Structure formats: structure tokens, C-alpha cells
Amino acid sequence: MEEGLFEKYKLEKETWTYKGFHGLLHTFFPVGEQPLRFFRKNYGDSFHITIFFVENDYVHWFWNEADMERLRVGLVNRVNRDPAFLSRLLKQWHIKLKLFRTVFKAITTARLAELNDRAFLALYKKFNMAYMDEYSIAAGLQDSFSMHSDRFLEPALKQVIHDHFNDTFVLLMSPTKDSFINQEMLGRYAILIQIQKNASLARLIKAQGARALPAIRQSHKKLYAQLRKHILNFHWVQNNYAKVVYLDAVYFLEALHDMLEKGVNPRVEIKRIEDAIARVKHEKLLLIKKLNLNKELRNLITIAEVFAYMQDERKKYVLIANYYQKLFKDEAGKRLELGVAEMNYTIYPELYDMLLKRGVSSEELHKRKDFCVCIQTLKGYEVVSGKRARELFVRMSGARDKETRILRGQTASVGCVRGIVKIIRTTHDLVNVATRLKLMRTRGKCV
């Protein structure tokens, strides 16, 4: 009788923290790898196992809690001994991000098509190595810290914050750097300023929206160049582990058209964004001084602030990586004569045999889409589909239906929104939200 995966990997005494979101086996495989060997190389410690299941383009990720606890406690102790450690960590990560950018900026659809199979595989390996190398620093420590903040950070602060805890906690945890979403909007407002300087151009876009693109390309070359630069910088902002949406000139012109229709004042909006960050920085400094926190608590707040920045930047590079992963998947699919759905359930190490030996099992790829598990350790990985995968999922999750898993986490900021909203109760709800709707998740007075 074939050994069960639960027994094979000795999981009897392990406990897990769950995350669920839309994703694909192909795009998520490097994410499962990065907390292991790459993280150990960069940090000296690591997770010993990662496990994620994929079911019809939905990922169930299980973080090992013993690893999370050990890494978090070790990090906090390290920062308490050496506060400069965080600065060195950021410097190391920024170097790896720069190396990652040099790899993906040279990748285009046309170039991939010109490469022979071996050169194509070598470039994809180089991409994945750089991706996992930078990702490991951003995620290995940050998720161990932030995902369990309710177990250690909130209780520690409740010892010294006795009034208005929710509002105070949110301010202490608020990011003090612009998110990539804000950066995209600032770029969009800068384009709107240029449009409003030219009354005839503003009338053209207000009247025609994206249909004005040929005229803009022909007669407003400066604006067109500014628009093209914005597209290159931010075409990826709606991507995720399961889909890639390339935001083109049509998309951004329609967005600018809507702003003109609504009478948006871009200078006011830019000031609002800039003032919000400055206000948070100022209020947080005053609050920390007022609370007279000890060194250990101040260090926890500093770690949270650094990791908030890293989490946003990490997500940015995930969304960019998803775009380039699609380019590779599409090119490999053409060579293998496999459809998109089938390529979504390959993993990059398998492409060597698939391309060089033509070892393709279309049936197995379809089984993986239905239900599979990827188990990754310091010694290697295993992808299993079918009954054994389902049995492991039941034992690890307690057979809880994914629809009942409630979305949890820290609130991003205090504030108000106006417009059409959809309340998000589970991660599964997210995929059905139209892009123009605002997302709202309440926690006390937070949105």
C-alpha cells in the first residue's frame, strides 16, 4: 500500500497558518521554493518545509508555525542586539532587486521566440534564480512577523496602550512610504496636468476617450511619450498569481477621460497623497514619544514599518514577475503545443525534460488543475495530484471548506471612502470584484 503524504513527511506534530488566494501551480512554485534554500543562503536559517495545494486556479498555502515562530523570535532578538541589522537587510535586498531587474528588463516576446530550447531554458532559469533570491529576503522574515502579529505584537502593545487601542495600534502600524498604487496614481495625475494645460487636447480626450489615441500618437508626441513611459512602468498593477492583465494606452486614456469627466484636480490629489504620508510620519513620531515605549517595543514598531515597505515592494515585483512568467509560459506552450490551461500546471524545472525530451503528459496536467499539492523541502520537491493530495489536504485543514475561511490581517490605514463598495469576507470574493470598485474590510473604525 502506498504511503500517505502525511506520514511520509512526518507531519503529525506540525501546526499550520493558512493563506488562500487565486493562483497557479506554475506561477506559485518559485514562491514555495524561496523560503527554503535561497532563504537559508541569504539569512543562515530557513523554513524546513512549505506546502501548498492548487485547486482550479486557487492556492491553499500552509505556513509551518514552528518555523515561523523560530524565525520571528530569532529576528526580534537579533534586532534587539543589533538595530542596524534591518538597514543591512534592506541594503542586501535592494542589491538583489537590482539584479532581478537587469534580468527581466531584457526579456521580450520577440527575443524569447528567437532562442533555441537550451538558451530559452537557461534564460528562464536565470530569471527564476534571481526572482527567488530577492523574494526570499522579503518574505521569509516578513511573513513570519506580520502574519502572527495578533499573537505577540498586539498583546505587547496592549500592556502600555490603555485607551483607544485600535486607533493607536493602526497609527503605529501605518506605512510611512508611498505604495506602488500611490506611485501609479501620482504618475497618472502628472499626465492629467499636461493634458489640462492644452484645452484642445483636454476637449479631445474628454469627447473621445481612448478613441483619441491615433490623434495623440500623431499630433501630441510629448504626451504620447509620457503615456508610453507610464505604461512601461505600471502595466502590471492588476496582475496576480492567477492572471496577467496588460494595462495599455486604451486603459489609461479611458481612466484619464473619466478624470476629466469628473473634474478631478490633479494638483489637489497629488497634495492629498503627499500630505497623508507626511502626516502619518509626524503623528507616529509624536505618538511614540508620548507613549514613552521601551527599546524592545520601539524595535517591534520599526520592524513592522520596514516590513510594511518590503511587503508592498515585494508585491510589486511579484506582479511584474507574473507578467514575465506568462511570456515564458506562452512561448514554451507554443513549442510544446500545449494550451494555456495546461501550461499553468507545469513547473519550470520540468520544462527541461518537456522541451528537450518531449516528455509531456497532458493528462497529468489536467489532473493537477483539478487538485494537486506541491511539497517543497530543503532536499527537493514533489508534486502530487488526485486522491493522495486530497487526503493530505483534509488532514491538514480539518476538511474546512475554503469559502468559510475568513479574510484576516492588519488594516492598512484609518480613513473613509465614497462610492460603490463590495464587502470582502473571504479571499475567494476578491476575484469577482470589478476593477473600478473600492475594496473595504472593516476593523473597528478602519477601512
The arrangement of helices and strands along the chain is HEHHEEHHHHHHHHHHHHHHHHHEEHEE
Order of strands, main sheet, comes to 1-3-2-4-5
The strand count comes to 7
Provide the gyration radius in Å.
Answer: 24 Å
Main beta-sheet annotation: 5 strands, antiparallel
Helix run count: 21
Derived structural class = alpha+beta
Q: What would the average pLDDT be, to the nearest integer?
A: 90
Percent helix, as a range, is 55-70%
Shape type: globular
Span between termini: 52 Å
Summed up, the domain count is 3
Strand content: 5-15%
Low-confidence stretches: 399-405, 435-447
Question: How would you describe what is shown here?
Answer:
By secondary structure, the chain is of the alpha+beta class. It folds into three domains: 5-160 and 293-404, no CATH class; 180-274, no CATH class; 415-447, no CATH class. It is built from 21 helices and seven strands. It has helices spanning 5-8, 25-33, 37-43, 65-81, 85-104, 109-114, 117-140, 142-146, 149-158, 165-173, 180-196, 199-208, 213-219, 221-234, 249-262, 266-291, 295-336, 340-343, 351-356, 362-370, 387-397, and strands spanning 16-22, 49-54, 58-64, 372-377, 380-385, 421-423, 438-440. The strands form two sheets. Strands 1-3-2-4-5 form a five-stranded antiparallel β-sheet, sandwiched between helices. Strands 6-7 form a two-stranded parallel ribbon. Helix 3 (37-43) packs across helix 7 (117-140), helix 7 packs antiparallel against helix 17 (295-336) and helix 12 crosses helix 15. The longest helix has 42 residues, at 295-336. The relative contact order is 0.15. The model is unreliable at 399-405 and 435-447 (pLDDT under 50).
